[in-house]
Model the fold of this input.
Amino acid sequence: MTGRRNLLAGEKSPYLLQHADNPVNWHPWGDDAFRKAREEDKPLFVSIGYATCHWCHVMERESFSDGEVANLLNDACVPVKVDREERPDIDGNFMAVCQMMNGSGGWPLNVFLTPEGLPFFAATYLPKRGTAGRPGMVDMVPRVKWLWKTRREQVMQSAGSIRETLLKEALPAAGPLPGQAQAKAAFDELSRGYDPQWGGFSKEPKFPMPSWLLFLFHYWKRFGEGSAFSMAKNTLSRIWAGGIHDHLGGGIARYATDRRWVLPHFEKMLYDQALLLHTVSEFHREKPDPLFEAFAEDLAGFVLREMTSPEGGFYSAFDADSEGEEGKYYLWTEEQIRNTLSREEAGVFLHSYGVLRGGNFKNEVTGRILGDNVLYMAVPPAEAAARFSLEPEELGGLLASCREKLLAERRKRPAPLLDDKILTDWNGLMIAGLSLAGSVFGRKDWVTAAEKAARFIELKLREKTGRLLHRYRDRDAAIPGFLDDYAFLAWGLTELGAVTGKKEYVLSAAKLMDILLEEFADGKRGGFFPHGGQDANLFLRRKEAYDGAIPSGNAVAMANFIRLAGPAGRKDFPDHARRIGGAFSGHVSKYPLSHAHLLTAVLMF
Done:
């Protein structure tokens, strides 16, 4: 620690504030940082992450709190910190650079830029000192300084080449509206990747990928393909049983590091809860099942208890770490459980939830198992009931009582950080999920919560012009809205209008779509840009329809136009939807599964 705070001290982002005491002379992204880089003839070092990211915490402790690294960075560069959740436009541009240069991406994301904002190097987590195959900060920063001083022309050529390549990729080939052939190709790709034993569509790691599950739902509905339903349901049942599901407090972690969904990366994101809630509600509406109902109760209950502000907006995320360790809040030793439960309860619970004396949780870095356990449903309830000579109802009641006792004990521990910023786009997803779930499961209180959140955004994050702001925290609303803010909130308001029958929600959603058409549309080629283009420091205005952990804003906009056309009385909306689909036709044909949500919208036509 330096005893003085850097320029991040005046920011609202919890992630930026986590770095405000670093000896690194961090700047927030903005004109001042770029002006300083030009005046001092230095490259910028832009480091991007988010408040609940485990490896961001590791790099902060190892490097950004370290005097040696700080001195190197301060000498060679103008260091800039970015919260990817506040500025998805910056993150999207530089993640594309990282994926192009390295074949993969992730966070923290670290990029070196010229003073004109052109990237020439990108990497994810960097340790302080290099290891085999991975450079370290103390190696990398002097190397960049040397290149900048002695090989400037080479660096500038590399930066220009990167920009040109990304510019070409950012212009998707237009064509006719994708159709059944592309949907079939995406379905076939999911079928080939499907894990019939443990669900999901990869070996490891495994992400919930609600966009894929929703695509399978609509594919099943449209074509009657039974395997689409069974793949999705088995995946949902495995997620429900796995350690990725918090069996005590509710909610789903961001992803599992193993094939069986047992070992999670522990951060909990609002968008995962929202999208999975929407998914299980869609399935239950068509084919009621106790699994879907239990899942919905779990997800909605967790968000309304733990992630809802007094004013009604929804918070962003819970951290993976507590007390400086990943997952410490959620892990249990056998002894801790035996000390909390009666002898009879402990025997049943330990067997049912896969608790081992030596532990079942493997440290991701060291590979060692040190006695800690992730709770997961290790055996089917019927098998556990038979083993302990209990009726299924008796087993269910006993395990519920155990979970309550363990949750009460867990609440005595230091809790993970709650990232309490409120994002318009993620709130839109939660409004959509709660609205649909409230209708499907007959929960008026969920619909009421969705309406309260919609009122919060109307009051705090919507300007008098109707335009949106992206982030609210500590009584401060800021950052002009992005494509996802408009598209996702319009989705939520559309669902809310359908459930409540209130026309004002539908008209408000249509107004948001009109603003998108006015300010975000690519008038020449169709589709929407992710932002309004106000930031002159961004080297690229990308346009894409790929899904990530959340669906593409262009795909959601397309679905909105289709669903709103009738209720809003807008005959022009279907044409706008077709134009979006046609704008990305070439990319959809080339990478159908990456555009699952857009293909879901196609299936809605």
Summary: Residues 88 and 482 are 8 Å apart (CA to CA). The domain at 7-169 is CATH 3.40.30.10 (Glutaredoxin).
